[in-house]
Amino acid sequence: MKKLLLYFSLLLILQSCWYTNHDDDYPGMRSSYEPITQSRKDFEKSISLLGERPVINSGKIYVKDDLIYLNELGEGFHIIDNSDPTKPNPVAFLKIPLATDLAIRNNILYVHHAVDLVAFSYSLNSNSLNISHRERNVFPELRSPEGLEPSFYNVPENEVVIGYQQLN
């Protein structure tokens, strides 16, 4: 009896390792969302330097020398001149759609831009941005609110999912 119980337990544990063709196909599943996509070419051009604007939905704060980079959740970073800490001066808004994080090393800023990692430098004196490198597809693709991957929606390879909209 103990042997039979042991075999049954092993069979039950190993059952989770069996592959079925339904694992990748989402059989019969429907979504109440559809992806909003952008061509890879347009997506890579979506980073821009704009004039300063009010902070609406702030996220993390980064400080490098006399500059403060304040994340506007999912939209980019406010650049603030903090050379006089008693009067911080907003100077620009770095528009980076779907930006969630930033790291700075040796005056190079690294930003999470949806699925890509982008390296660039910013000059306060000339208020200019210089993108030096883009590493494509470093981060996972944006999932739907239901937790479905873009592959469920058959998103073409040359498209990047930038959001989801609910179907009526």
Describe the fold and architecture.
The protein is mostly beta strands. Helix content is 11%, strand content 43%. The chain has helices spanning 2-15, 40-44; strands at 33-39, 48-50, 58-64, 67-72, 76-81, 89-95, 99-105, 108-113, 116-123, 128-135, 159-166. The chain has a 5-stranded antiparallel beta sheet, with no helix packed on it. A hairpin with a 2-residue loop joins strand 3 (58-64) and strand 4. The relative contact order is 0.19. The mean pLDDT is 88.
Offer a concise description of the structure.
This protein is mainly β and 168 residues long. Helix content is 11%, strand content 43%. It has one domain (33-166).
